[in-house]
Design a protein that fits this description.
heterodimer, A: about 625 residues, mainly alpha, 29 helices, B: alpha/beta, Rossmann fold, Alpha-Beta Plaits, four-stranded antiparallel sheet, 14 strands, elongated, binds adenosine-5'-diphosphate, binds magnesium ion
Chain lengths: ~625, ~325
Amino acid sequence: MSAGPTPAKDGAALAASGAGRRIARLVRGLAPARLLFGPVFQVDVRVSGRKGWTYASRCMVAALLLGVMALAFIGAGSELDRTSAADRLQRAQGIAPALTLTVLWFQFVVLAFVAPSLTAGAICDERNTRTMVALLATPLTAGQIMLGKFTSRLVQLLILSLIAAPLLLSLRVFGGVPAGVVLKGIGLIVMVCITGAALGLFFSVRARKPAKAAGNAMGVLMLFAAGPAIMIAIWGQVMGASLAPGRNPWVDVVWALCSPAVMGVLSAEIMTESLPVSSGTLWGTSMLLHGGVTVLALLCASARLRAVMRADNIVPAAPARRSRRSAPAAKAGADGATHVTDVSERFAESSREVSDRPVLWREMRQPIFRSRTRLLIAVLGGIAVAVLFYSQASLRDDDTHMMVAVLGMTMLVSKACSQTTGTVTSEREGRTWDVLMSTPLRAREILAGKALGGLWRMWFIPALLMLHFGIVAVPSGFVRAEAWLMLPPVLIGTSVFLCCSGVAFSLLSKKSTGASTWNFLLAGGLWMGLPIFLAFLSGTGLLGRGGDTQQALSAAVQGMNPVGISVASVRGLTESLGESSAWAVPGPRQYRISSWSLSPAEFVGVCWVFGLGYCVAGYAFLTFAAARFNRAAGRTS
Amino acid sequence: MIEIRNLTKRFGSLLAVDDLSLTVGEGELFGFIGPNGAGKSTTMKILACLLRADSGTATVCGLDVRKDGEAIRRMLGYMPDFLGVYDDLTVDEYLQFFASAFRLERRKRRAVIDGVLELTDLTVKKRAMVSSLSRGMQQRLGVARVLLHDPKVLLLDEPASGLDPRARIEMRELLVELRRMGKILMVSSHILSELAEMSTSIGIIERGKLLYAGSILDAYERVRGGDQIAVTLEAPAEGTEAQDAESAARTLRADSRVASVSVEGPRLEIELKPEERSHHFVIEALVRAGVRIAAFEPRQIKLEDAFLKLTKGSVQ
Ligand SMILES: Nc1ncnc2c1ncn2[C@@H]1O[C@H](COP(=O)(O)OP(=O)(O)O)[C@@H](O)[C@H]1O
Ligand SMILES: [Mg+2]
């Protein structure tokens, strides 16, 4: 596959002057086949082909897609029951756009999450297994390595994104869906994924763990999605005009960076077919911008890799790890030697006493933010968001609290899902696991230490939520004081559960990405899969429409969902206190889970059952893992 | 005491340890020698209760590795072949971490840590980050870590690998010091000469099979065969005839203590019978035959040759 240089060309290059040689090398390096499908590409494709995980993920995406389709179809088709064939066909034509949109959006969301994690391990796994040095010692340039890694993952991504193509094509049979717009949608999805993959690769160069790189890349993607929207919202406030996408070409340039907005415009076009403005320019600009970001990310990644290469060349004995310990030092061109003394001096004054629970002690010592810069960015960003939020949103408004609850819980769940999944795998990678195993520490002690340490390091999310509800909203009288009793068990139970299951998966998986995938699947299955499954069951009518069983089940499913129970509690907590109480119902105040109504005392009870239940479930996970521990860890007893 | 009986461990179809039996007694420093992939680390991991053997038994101080892992862990120090370092800790914190993991009382930790740092000559690096240590220091820190809980038995997997000659000597001195302290040591290496001097006994393993176990002197005895001596005759003076090497050889061949003699110009290569230890009769016979000797060199059999001889033919 790779186009080798011809001997004549080589000879010429050798004969040429230094500059000429450099140009020759550049030209050879730019030969697209060699650049894109070089050795790195081939090895990576082969390796991923050998991993069962690759195929499992494809099947999973396909299965999920079919599931979502089936649901949407059943949901829309349930009223079709007693109608004539012609009627049904007409209705089916009506649903086709909705189904298309479901599939498109589903793909958009799923792939935007998958793309960064596909590339996130590319460089950092290589470094963790110490094969990076060998790769860097070959004549491959940083750019070639990067592109090889990139294209090999892109193949995966394309396969994943094309799984839906037959589905979308079959939907066209129903008619009523403009093909061009659907193609534009697919194009945008693929483009956003490519951007995500490039960003994942960029962060992979310096990241310690793949999960970190993936998280950073997703963060940037989300920034692209949310940033323009916020900017335009402020802009609109200042101008006092509505600046929806598709109205003003200048505003559209900003909107184009916000892929959900572009998807929204495309959706509107699919649904109505008659939007006042065409989405063409917006879409084109968006594609161009995302392409630009991709190229930029890849260039920066190559440059970064080259910097890492240089840093490693200066101190051959130093593991690559060292250069990532202090990125600023490496950036400033400081050599390894001064850096080493700098590290040992920095810690010279402080040597902390280790407690009697060494694993927990170490976990708690792990910094929440890797560097001071990042901490600063997080704090400043947090303050900015808070100022923006409290200046724009009114505490009187129930929606404000609802939004905080939903966003906060989502953040909590996604943080907790990946919080502890690297704890055991990273010890294995750092080869410290064997050493730890040869101590008399017990399984439960090690695992509980890791889970509790992880929990400790994410204190700030529950703290922020309690700050909003308990400290800000309750005293100002727009949220009832029961919040103090209801929210803590919900927040703590959820975090405990996911931290514990994360440690369990970390023990049983080889890589932290695998572990966090399992943990996300667990959370997704419990809190998204179950409701979907239930909706599916009631759609098929197996449970009897509106019967008691169905009501009990849906109440249970909502009640065990952290977001669901938070929504229910915030509803009750804010009901008829603020101004826009859309859901205020006359009569005695009640909390509603699905179709059940509970008194405040009962609901507090539910929250505590929720919290304790998840703590017990988390403990069960740990116990299960501890039981499997010796086998998984290789210990004999 | 370490006792291994008929230990076998497979990884899939690969036989990593094959029916291995050996004993390491009190106060011994056992050198475990074999090329890469021979099964040294696997055996040590089984002894450290980190890996379950497929069959056979192994006991450490009378405790079965299958049943008493917990108790063994308290009296055994295991240092893996690759020192995993928590690169975000200082040397002191690293040792404290493991002192705590081994449940040392808090009051005693300070003294114990200072003690092992002193012993391993790392006191000056107490506050340095573990990741900033040189490879030799990291290995010594690994030894310091295994000493924290004052174990009776030490399993050190390739402690000298990757060290420069100086660090190697320091490591050797440290190990000899530990043996003097009465610990049972099992030290692996793929280089025989690295262990030969300090070991009280050695075991040679290849492809999972123990080819030899016993004292290093016995190993020599086994492979030495007869002593070899090279004799060079004086060059002839101006105008005189060259000495008759052949007739000298004939004289020697007549002796029952000589196994063989070969002649190459002015040089005689003499091999004695294996049981023969003294060399003086060779000189006497040559002098009696009127030969003038320029050089008389008994050949030492080299360690590595012994190693090769010991293992040759057993594994194809
Ligand atoms: N976890 C494992 N899985 C599969 N094979 C292994 C594993 N550990 C070791 N081996 C194999 O067992 C053999 C012995 O390995 P090892 O004991 O590490 O050798 P040594 O330490 O003597 O170099 C080698 O061929 C190695 O590849
Ligand atoms: Mg080994």
